[in-house]
Amino acid sequence: MANFKLAAAALLSFGAASAWQTRTSFVTSPRAIQQSALKTAALYNNNHAVQSRSSLNMVVSDPTSVSSGGGMFTASNAESRRVVPEDPRGRPTMKIVYVVLESQYQSSMTAAAKRINAGSDNMAVECVGYLLEELRNEDAFEQFKKDVADANVFVGSLIFVQELAEKVTEVVQPLRDQLDAVLIFPSMPEVMRLNKVGSFTMKNLGQSKSVVADFMKKKKQEDGSSFEEGMLKLLRTLPKVLKFLPSDKAADARTFMMSFQYWLGGSPENLESLLLMVGQDYVGPIKENMKGKEKVVVEEPVLLPDKAIWHPVAPDIVFETNQKYFEWYDKEFCPEAGIDPKNAQTIGIILQKSHINTKDDTHYVSLIAELESRGARVVPIYSGGLDFSGPVEEYYYDSNGKPIVDTIINLTGFALVGGPASQDHKKAASTLKKLNVPYMCAVPLVFQSFEEWQASELGLHPIQVALQVSLPEIDGAIEPIIYAGREGATGRSVPLADRVNLLADRAMKWASLRTKKNADKKIAITIFSFPPDKGNVGTAAYLDVFDSIKAVLKQLKTEGYDIGDAPSEKEAIMESVLNDPEARINSPELNVAYRMNTNEYYELTPYAKDLEENWGPAPGNLNSDGQNLVVYGKQFGNVFIGVQPSFGYEGDPMRLLFAKSASPHHGFAAYYTFLEKIFKADAVLHFGTHGSLEFMPGKQVGMSGTCYPDRLINSLPSAYLYAANNPSEATIAKRRSYSATVSYLT
What we know:
Blueprint: H1 2-13, H2 32-42, E1 93-100, H3 105-119, E2 124-131, H4 138-149, E3 153-157, H5 162-172, E4 181-184, H6 189-192, E5 196-197, E6 200-201, H7 211-223, H8 227-236, H9 238-242, H10 247-265, H11 268-282, H12 284-289, E7 307-310, E8 318-319, H13 322-337, E9 346-350, H14 353-357, H15 362-373, E10 377-383, H16 389-395, E11 407-410, H17 425-435, E12 439-441, E13 443-444, H18 450-455, H19 462-475, E14 482-486, E15 493-495, H20 497-515, E16 523-527, H21 545-558, H22 570-578, E17 592-597, H23 598-604, H24 612-615, E18 628-636, E19 639-643, H25 655-658, H26 666-678, E20 683-686, H27 708-713, E21 718-723, H28 727-736, E22 739-744
Parallel strand pairs: 1-2, 1-3, 3-4, 9-10, 9-11, 11-12, 13-14, 16-19, 16-20, 20-21, 21-22
Antiparallel strand pairs: 4-5, 5-6, 7-8, 7-10, 14-15, 17-18, 18-19
Helix pairs in contact: 1-7, 2-15, 3-11, 10-11, 15-20, 21-22
């Protein structure tokens, strides 16, 4: 009883020390959607069929129709989200303006408005939506002001970027009293305070003394609930809570909480109910028109469980235990899909529930299909809030507490705990460290169109780099691979075929490192020569390279790796690789590990022709004997110690970084082709600070299939030893060459 009274008081004063962090969803799961994902992916392979196992289907143009006029990096336009009733038929029209972080609500909101316009006798709906980043554009911002000025209802969600939160507040605050309703869902406190549903407000939000804050603290003490989890528990107890409120305030509080549930539901049906409820109860002209008429009885919100396992072709919408999921997946789905559940690698996938409930999940289905086509099992999970540590703990261990996943891919692009709002990196790191598997955080394009990203030398939007690359990295995430773009006309997410293939390939390679026997794993140790042509083969900043390789080989042998007849002394290792410790990079004294003829090179290196603009036809003069491309190094059992070729521009090595048309030379490309496709390395260890792979031409962050770091490393897992005093270049290596960096002291 005491808890219900406290919750009731919370609804009355509604304040909290921090903003909400919640999103949930609803979806049906027809088997046909898996095939539709592959068909959609085919759009991005110009003049080519989908090749599910190829990670080098280069995308060079944007097939989507995108209008201009958006924000700094956003070639989208709110007009594509404007719905105007074609024939009001004398009905009063409610105008609703909404601002959201991402575009997945666009199709549901559009469908909801059109359904009302087609079927309601009591009201019509005009609706227009803005992506948060569009408000940076002056023209878009001016239009936003005009739209809000004559709106009836304003809705905002996930407004967590400070300067844009200020813009929203600047526009809505002066008009708040004239608006019939303001609905703000998880956002910064100053935006949440704009909420207004009849007598219900959030004027105390963010103040130190807050009943909601006290309520949530109590729930956290009782069962460890995060703030958003506490809010969902409050929603579930809503019927019991409302009886402790005065009748008028109870009605308004109930409307807000129901609105929140409908928004969490996200489907066109849920949002239609939201619009009907708010319109007939709070919008003046519609209320007047409804006098003497019976109100429409809106459907109850349809919500999924707060956390569960979801699969696009499952007969049940979701599974609330991994036991129930594997009962279906291993016994029914895997045999039909040709997957061996006993020996398959298992990939955990973290999803945004809002994409599932709005049925904007084609990009998720595409990756699931690619992984399963490679023989992997998948365990796709979601959370009712933005704290995914709970579902990870619950679904990624078996009944004996043993991890059941070999790699995790976070497809939300956000931090594991807190999303874009407020992060708990300590909690996230603790969760991931306990699980101890590779953790990849892939990135969907949010603030720019596919076309803009593809054409940009910068690559990923700076705001998105901060939210969806930097913050996940603090948790321990690696490999920010772009895997989906935004379709301009509808706002729906579309998988980028070559990126999805690459992501699947790399996840499988990381997973194989957990499942393969150490004796069978092939490791490529790559040493450098920088500055080039200065007798610096096998050197690195603050590191005794060959002595360190000696220690690594010793440890590998202890752990069961096959190191063949590798010498046990530093000098002997150096001699076997160099033959001459003072060797120059172009010296014939370097040990030749492999000679690659030009036919083999062109066959195995899909981008080789692109290098001819700068270097002519292979083999060229670098890492070449005149007829073949030469790979320098020495193999010991399943360990290869190789010498990364030079930049190529001997007198001006930095030219490669700044010349727009520059490229690595054929010898450099042949080296990485050898590692991946001839030696067939399971992983590469880049040894010391630093080589040149990460500085090859391409985008700064968010590589495309035409960026040379991406082309060179391709599917190879990479660990990179980097000096602890050089975090800036280590970050470049992490983001541009997909390397898991390991610091060493200086």
